[in-house]
What we know:
Layout: H1 13-16, E1 39-43, E2 52-62, E3 65-66, E4 71-82, E5 87-97, E6 100-108, E7 117-126, E8 134-146, E9 152-163
Amino acid sequence: MPHWRALGAVSLGLLTGCVRLPPPPGQCVVATAWSTAYARQHILATLAPGQIRVLHYTVIANPARGRPCGTITLHKQLAVMRGRGDLHIAEVRDFYHGHLLVAVHTAHIGARLSSSGRYTSDVTLPIPGNAPLGHYTVISLLYARWGDGPPILLARSRTHFLVTR
């Protein structure tokens, strides 16, 4: 498995395609702020050092339908039990239009998940003015790595949305 799914190689062609100043005629300007700030809602028990367990991980697109120059919000819920230690967590989101991978976004979230708990987060996704119409799938993968060890896949979630005129 590639190291963190090539975390440094973030391909955001779909999601940053119309961020220009000034915009070309007929295009919109869409902000590309990716907030991945998880907020802890409840505290859970702590595991032994070097251990982690994901109890629940969902990503839901809301609304499930958007238009070019609009936005879709990904609502994320995560329940994780973890031990103490140098834990690196990355959330890798693969965006597909039909079966074609059109974008990858990676967020390093380990510092935001410093203890066991139930967390929530909302990420606003801009829809560029030139985004192809149709069905999109977001597959979100949660990876963890203790210290210098290899990354392991902890959880996976999938959601769908539709881009219409």
